[in-house]
Amino acid sequence: LAAKNRELLRFIATREPQSVSELAVMAERAPQNVQRTLHRLSAAGIVHLSHGEGRAVRPTLAARKVQIEIDLALGK
């Protein structure tokens, strides 16, 4: 995970944003970029996206720790 994405995860864990927009402000990033990143993290099972108030989507951590295993011989 890139440093900016780990920062997003720290904000979610420590500051508990109520929406993607709020998280984007915290991280000083464009909401569209944050949303795209969160969808990738959600697909990987790291973040859970739930409906908040109104149209807001609330990010929460799906896990506190993540271990990644990569098969470098894939395709042989």
Q: Could you characterize what this model shows?
A:
Strand 1 (47-51) and strand 2 (57-61) form a beta hairpin. This protein is elongated. It has 3 helices and 2 strands; from the N terminus they run αααββ. By secondary structure, it is of the alpha+beta class. Helix 2 (20-27) packs across helix 3. 18% of the residues are buried. Strands 1-2 form a two-stranded antiparallel ribbon. The protein has helices at 3-15, 20-27, 31-43; strands at 47-51, 57-61. The mean pLDDT is 92.
Furnish the topology, listing elements before pairings.
Layout: H1 3-15, H2 20-27, H3 31-43, E1 47-51, E2 57-61
Antiparallel strand pairs: 1-2
Helix pairs in contact: 2-3
Short descriptors:
45% helix; 3 helices; alpha+beta; 76 residues; two-stranded antiparallel sheet
Rg, alpha carbons:
14 Å
Identify the strand order in the major beta sheet. 1-2
Q: Give the DSSP E fraction (strand runs of 2 or more residues).
A: 5-15%
Please give the count of helices.
3
What sequence of helices (H) and strands (E) makes up the elements?
Answer: HHHEE
Q: What is the gist of this entry?
A:
The protein has three helices and two strands.
